[in-house]
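Title: [Solved] Queuine tRNA-ribosyltransferase 3D structure

Original question kept below for reference.
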Amino acid sequence: MGEYKLLKKSGKVRRGEFKTVHGVIQTPVFMNVGTLAAIKGAVSTMDLKEIRCQVELSNTYHLHLRPGDEIVKKMGGLHKFMNWDRPILTDSGGFQVFSLSGIRKIKEEGVYFSSHIDGRKIFMGPEESMQIQSNLGSTIAMAFDECIPNPSPREYVERSVARTTRWLERCKNELDRLNSLPNTVNKEQMLFGINQGGTYEDIRIEHAKTISKMNLDGYAIGGLAVGETHDEMYRIIDAVVPYLPQDKPIYLMGVGLPSNILEAVSRGVDFFDCVLPARNGRHGHVFTKNGKINLFNKKYELDDSPIDEGCQCPACRNYSRAYIRHLFKAKEMLAMRLCVLHNLYFYNKLMEDIRDAIDNDYFDEFKEQKLQEWNGKA
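Solution (posted by the thread starter after getting help):
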């Protein structure tokens, strides 16, 4: 069982630490996304330590298809397989129910997929998702749910959320069973439940109340950043957070931009993840203290300054914008690697600065200053 300790609270803002079998996570935290047990862009687990990553996130559905969770288990679990001794969170495959909507069918027992790799039929329900995640041996397993597109008709959302609740019960029972088996990779594996309900506040609140009674290790807000506006997302976070247990971590799934993270921290969120910094980096879009820049822009052709002046990431300490732009133009893999390292460092450092600001009672000022700098108004 994970132990969440609230170190400081200022309004809704929370500063905590979460004890796990793979180390203590300082929150608020951004989890670096390595879908297939690797960060896209040739970034190793050794690099992750250098850029101050606390938690790595991998994907249940993708690792089940390749190399296969049974293989990962035979290799001693995901930590050993990818050589990472800090916490790992695995998402449940529930998001793929949304993102692969063209090749899946949802039933009460679970979801029937056609593999996006070779078309073969795959079935995943709550029990299967827990079995795969148990084989992977992650620190935190996510419950299997349906991620609903926004907007969706109210009647559909109500039916879906009720099924997600039934699936959560099944996840909890199955993970308890798996954790008690002698050959389980990580017998301390934790379960986070996921709040759904689209953009309907009342459905969200009812669902939050229901799952809060299950005494899980943590709680996520799912089904956001999938089509609604930022204002709608903030409205739902405001509505839901007060109804989730305040003595457990709260995780906003798949979010987002640095500005979204600041807004969500101010609303009481502890955990974040997003593919955005790595994906942007692979396309030459990098974050700086003055907002995002595109290194493909011709104006950087003779720019001998680092991506972000004063940044201590491996890219900024050693290379210029002009050189990295040249690497992209020459289609050298090193370009992607340096920009992904920079963007992930930017996010990890942002979280450190957020924690410092909360510790030292100036988070509100910090948030306003950052938002002005990123919007070019400072």
